[in-house]
Amino acid sequence: MLGSLWSLCLEDPFTSAFNIDQPKETKLKQLPENLIVELKQRRRIEYTECVKSATQKFKEIVLVKNPKYQSKKVPAVDAYIDKCIELFWLMSVQDPPMVIRWPKADSPFDGDNYKEYCRKGRKVKIAVWPAVYLHEKGALMNKGFAMPY
Fold it and tell me: Which is nearest to 83 in space by CA: 117, 107, 55, 58?
């Protein structure tokens, strides 16, 4: 069972990163708790294979639609994308997973969770960077940035 779940992680890294507790594709009704714990530990320790697969799939599915990316392959941009996916992957495989939240346009500016970018104001005009939380309803790890109006 562990081998088939690990294969699922490599085949569909974006889905399996979030659904290890209830893997639909394996057709297993209930997994033993020790197997779930083992898989989560293995996923954190041996994450490089999953990150490579996730990065490849992201570039094949998402970036292929961006003509600017396709015409101007810049090594620095590829390195940035690789690092972002690695960090998001590691955040998602924590138990419980870390959470990022983007401020919504036209919502009231929340100074407790976001820093003002370039100007002061009462409502969010543009989301600049998300806030990072330890887990859902968890402690704020890092404030985000938003440009208010």
Answer: 55
